[in-house]
Design a protein that fits this description.
alpha/beta; Rossmann fold; binds adenosine-5-diphosphoribose; three-stranded antiparallel beta sheet; 22% strand; 13 strands
Length: 241
């Protein structure tokens, strides 16, 4: 029988997800492939320098991601987390590294997209206006929309070398948790790969779910091997008083 994780009436849960949770929805993970897109290293396309030097290439990449994301549907793992949030309320918090909207569409609400969101764009000049909803698949750079200040829009994505979003809120939610569950992330991108160490420092139990051991496997108190969509629906036992 598969392992179950008991959640007591006083537990506070912090969940971190990565590309692996969307794999069963048909969205490829980053490091499963050869890490290349159209002959470019991902790390060369998703940077502020690439946006400066070759915005057409950056927008082509994210337009393709938008097209692919729109066709994908939430899978049983996304839905299991939304169901768990419905039971735990404010004792549940979800932080995702994914820029797709599958958690949102599954019903998760206490959610931070720390690496940004595919379905939004913002001012390339950082004029201070908030990101706007933008699911447009642009066929060329001339079609890309403009901010009301006149500057071109950029994807609302945290590029390599940029600071993830809402870090102080994330830090305080980790300080406050008694259980951290990390799902489908290789543990190779920081600071997210360090969250498990912050949680252990705060005295929390730490569980990893995925088909392979992540690079930071030794920091977890439990590893549950398997695909998220198969493991998560039966993983949690919510205890009442
Ligand atoms: N269920 C759970 N995990 C899975 C599944 C599955 N069905 N399929 C694959 N995985 C796991 C892989 O074993 C791997 O450890 O998902 C992980 C995906 O790792 P990465 O491709 O490195 O993705 P991630 O860790 O989310 O990348 C982090 O890097 O490129 C940047 O900003 C981007 O948010 C991304 C960040």
């Amino acid at each position: 029988m598969l392992m179950q994780i008991s959640i007591s009436p006083t537990d506070r849960l912090f969940v971190l997800t990565g590309a692996g949770i969307s794999a069963e929805s048909g969205l490829p993970t980053f490091r499963a492939s050869d890490g290349l897109w159209a002959g470019h290293r991902i790390e060369d396309v998703c940077t502020p320098e690439a946006l400066e030097e070759n915005p057409a290439l950056v927008w082509e990449f994210y337009s393709q991601r938008r097209e692919q994301g729109a066709k994908a549907e939430p899978n049983p793992a996304h839905r299991a987390l939304a169901d768990l949030e419905a039971k735990l309320g404010d004792r549940f918090f979800l932080c995702t590294q994914n820029v797709d909207d599958l958690h949102d569409r599954a019903g998760s609400r206490r959610l931070i997209h720390m690496h940004g969101e595919l379905a939004k764009s913002r001012c390339e000049d950082e004029c201070g206006r908030p990101p706007i909803e933008d699911r447009t698949v642009y066929a060329s750079l001339v079609e890309v929309g403009r901010c009301t200040c006149g500057a071109r829009l950029r994807p609302h994505i945290v590029f390599f070398g940029e600071t993830p979003l809402e870090m102080s809120r994330i830090q305080s939610k980790i300080d406050d948790c008694s259980l951290m569950v990390v799902i489908g992330t290789s543990g190779s991108v920081y600071p997210a790969a360090n969250f498990v160490n912050w949680a252990r420092h705060a005295g929390a139990r730490t569980v990893y779910v995925g088909p392979e051991r992540p690079l930071n496997a030794s920091a977890f108190t439990h590893i549950v091997e398997g695909k998220a969509g198969e493991v998560l629906p039966g993983l949690f036992e919510v205890l009442s008083i």
